[in-house]
Amino acid sequence: MLMPKKTKYRKQQKGRMRGVSKGGTALVFGEYGLKALEPAWVTNRQIEAARRSITRHAKRGGKVWIRIFPDKLGGRGQAGADPL
């Protein structure tokens, strides 16, 4: 799984999404790209699932570059846990 090796603080503030970015839409590596159509947080599991699916479809004939990193730690917590 993708995760930061070391962070300064244990928990990170949630922040907020501000819609669609103006730049960063041009393809830098390769011939094909995967683009999000709406703003949402992307987890490390989603990135890993996309990478596995792409590499399985491309077989040995392709190379995959992942230019996103899940540096937002934390998630929903345990299922069924009581909120504090």
TrEMBL record:
InterPro entries: Ribosomal_uL16, Ribosomal_uL16_bact-type, Ribosomal_uL16_CS, Ribosomal_uL16_dom, Ribosomal_uL16_sf. GO terms for biological process: translation. GO terms for cellular component: cytosolic large ribosomal subunit. PROSITE patterns: RIBOSOMAL_L16_1. The keyword Nucleotide-binding does not apply. It comes from the Bacteria. GO terms for molecular function: rRNA binding; structural constituent of ribosome; tRNA binding. Residues 1-19 have a biased composition (Basic residues). The keyword rRNA-binding applies. Residues 1-20 are annotated as: Disordered. Belongs to the universal ribosomal protein uL16 family. Binds 23S rRNA and is also seen to make contacts with the A and possibly P site tRNAs. NCBIfam families: rplP_bact (TIGR01164). Part of the 50S ribosomal subunit. This is 50S ribosomal protein L16.
